[in-house]
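We both want to read discrete structure tokens more fluently, so let's practise on a single case. Would you write everything just below, so we can both look at the same thing?
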Amino acid sequence: VKESVSRFMAYVHTSVNQTSKEYLANERRYNHTTPKSFLEQIKLYRSLLGQRSKELTAKMERLENGLRKLSSTSAQVFISLM
């Protein structure tokens, strides 16, 4: 996964550089990309990844609690029917 993410980040940075050249040619305005902007992109990705990971963990815990409650309720219904 790390290799594909790093390749994607490099691709995006290269694409932005190319688009900046086209922007300069069409609009005669500069858009600079720097190593810092590349690092900011990685920082943003890490932040979003952490956020999504927390959301996924919360959803997994919620699902596990729901399954436990269903199992408990099922057992209580089964006992009451006997």
